[in-house]
Amino acid sequence: MSSPKPLLPIEMIQQQVAAALAEDIGGGDISAELIDPLERSTARVITREAGVLCGQPWVNEIVAQFDADLAIEWFAADGDQVAANTTLFTVTGLSRGLLTIERTMLNFLQMLSGTATLTARYVACIKPYKTRLLDTRKTIPGLRLAQKYAVHCGGGWNHRIGLFDAYLLKENHLAAAGGIQAAVGEAKTLQPEAKVEVEVETLEELETAIAAGADIALIDNFSIADTEKAVALSDGKIELEASGGIRLEDIEAIAKTGVDYISVGDLTKTIAPLDLSMRIIA
User: Fold this and answer.
1) Residue of 5, 130, 170, 237 with catalytic role
2) Which of 27, 60, 178, 279 has the fewest CB neighbours in a 10 Å radius?
3) List 5, 40, 48, 103, catalytic entry
4) Is 33 noted as a catalytic residue in this protein?
């Protein structure tokens, strides 16, 4: 089963692209002015390394906003595993325009593909287990839905989108609201349809969260031994999300314990862009 595709409002993509083009072009591309305004070319974009493609809607929108007469042809789709030296797409049109939008296209595509690629590496480690990989809110400001879409393309699952669509009651919330029992009770009164997740730091706090009727417990920085105890204690009464500085080399051992979810902030905050290149070929 794949994760539900996150909503990508076209207005959001349009705004992000418009801002990126304005940032890069400013008053005009003075380098492109060296080229004959009537010259036409075809450019090819390849990936120099293997990965998972992500970012087509942004590239298509860049072409549409800058010059609707540019013709783009894709040879891979978002979510596809692509080998090194694969041609991802070609775009044909006025040479000046191709060079002007090159960097903006590659910036979106390499960043989102990098996130999708890293996600796929984590997902591959836990594929034999029931555990689902979750992202977090540790995202680039203004690009959260884009990055969560990239996580989806890599086979991961999206946690809450923001502060508005689910409760996540952490240490400071619980201290200010009078403890786990009081906080969960108030949350269910105020937003009865919303999932209530509670951060717990000990097995005793997990027992309290179960008794309070929380839907999910975020077991923060638990050892493998304590994670196994937490799984046994939960026994279907509450879902468990393991979190806390989890790395690629750690994730399989955690999934083996039987937790429902593992959340990894590095998916969206530690980005190694996919190595892409554009070359004029005709």
Assistant:
1) 170
2) 27
3) 103
4) no
Kindly report the number of other CB atoms within 10 A of residue 54's CB atom: 31
CATH 3.90.1170.20 for domain 10-123+271-280: yes
6 pLDDT band, cuts 50/70/90, is confident
**Phi, psi angle pair for 259, to nearest 5°:** -65, 155
Q: Is 103 a catalytic residue?
A: yes
Q: Which of 24, 80, 215, 220 is catalytic?
A: 220
Length of the chain: 282
- The helix or strand, by DSSP H or E, that contains position 11, with its residue range, turns out to be helix 10-25
What percentage of the chain has pLDDT greater than the value 70?
Answer: 99
Domain 129-269 architecture: Alpha-Beta Barrel (3.20)
pLDDT at site 2: 54
Mean pLDDT across the stretch 71-95?
97
Name the active-site residue from 78, 102, 197, 199. Answer: 199
For residue 186, give both structure tokens: 């108030």
Q: Yes or no: say if 278 and 63 are a contact pair by the CB < 8 Å rule.
A: no
Mean pLDDT of the chain: 95
> 241 pairs with which residues across the strands?
218, 261
User: Residue 131 corresponds to which tokens in the numbers above?
Assistant: 């555990």
Q: What pLDDT digit, counting tens, does each position of 39-72 carry?
A: 999 999 999 999 999 999 999 999 999 998 999 9
Neighbouring CB atoms inside 10 A of 244's CB total 16
SS3 category, 142:
coil
Torsion region of 147: left, alpha or beta (phi above 0 gives left; psi -120 to 50 gives alpha): alpha
Contact 125, 255 (CB under 8 A): yes
Is residue 195 annotated as part of the catalytic site, yes or no? no
> Using CA atoms, how far apart are residues 73 and 60, in angstroms rounded to an integer?
10
Domain boundaries, the chain: 10-123+271-280, 129-269
Instruction: Identify whether 5 is a catalytic site residue.
Output: no
**For the residues 219-245, what does the mean pLDDT come to?**
96
